[in-house]
Amino acid sequence: MSANKKNRLEILNFYAAELDRLLIGRGWVPAGPCPFSACENLNSFSLDLGTGAFACLSCGVSGDDAVDFKAALSGVSRATAIENLAHVWGLQPDDFFRRNHEPD
Ligand SMILES: [Zn+2]
């Protein structure tokens, strides 16, 4: 793990906390009940643990990263979601504007 990692939201940790479920896998993985209240379909929600992207085939909610997830779940803007995530995860808001793709 590089030093840079400490300045980024760990996608696996984030979703494990948000979904109360341990997720294992690469790429898109099924992630249990859809967490969006209007849906809660048991088998339609999936995540890409590499990028944090998410999608539900039942209600159609989707997004590109953990910020989109938090914004959609909380009904707030991306800017507000970033502030909330930074606070909860001990990061700086600027950290969210770096891409998750880092050179090895
Ligand atoms: Zn759904």
SSE topology:
Blueprint: H1 11-19, E1 28-30, E2 45-48, E3 54-56, E4 62-63, H2 66-74, H3 78-89
Antiparallel strand pairs: 1-2, 2-3, 3-4
Helix pairs in contact: 2-3
The structure holds zinc ion (ZN).
Task: Give your account of this protein's structure.
- The chain has 104 residues and is α+β, with helices and mostly antiparallel strands.
- It has one domain: DNA Primase, Chain A.
- 29% of the residues lie in helices and 12% in strands.
- It contains 3 helices and 4 strands.
- It has helices at 11-19, 66-74, 78-89; strands at residues 28-30, 45-48, 54-56, 62-63.
- It has a 4-stranded antiparallel sheet with strand order 1-2-3-4, with helices on one face.
- Strand 2 and strand 3 form a beta hairpin.
- Helix 2 (66-74) packs across helix 3 (78-89).
- The longest helix has 12 residues, at 78-89.
- The protein is globular.
- The termini are close together.
- The mean pLDDT is 83.
- It binds zinc ion.
Q: Could you tell me the strand content as a percent range?
A: 5-15%
What name is given to the CATH topology? DNA Primase, Chain A
From the helix content, strand content and strand pairing, which structural class follows? alpha+beta
User: Which ions and ligands are bound to the chains?
Assistant: zinc ion
Label the overall shape.
Answer: globular
Residue share in helices?
A: 25-40%
For the largest beta sheet, what order do the strands appear in spatially? Answer: 1-2-3-4
**Overall radius of gyration:** 13 Å
* Strand/helix succession: HEEEEHH
Q: How much is the average pLDDT?
A: 83
CATH class: Alpha Beta
Distance between the termini: 10 Å
Residue runs with pLDDT of under 50 for 5 or more positions: none
The CATH architecture would be Alpha-Beta Complex
Count of distinct structural domains:
1
Largest sheet: 4 strands, antiparallel
CATH homologous superfamily grouping? Zinc finger, CHC2-typedomain
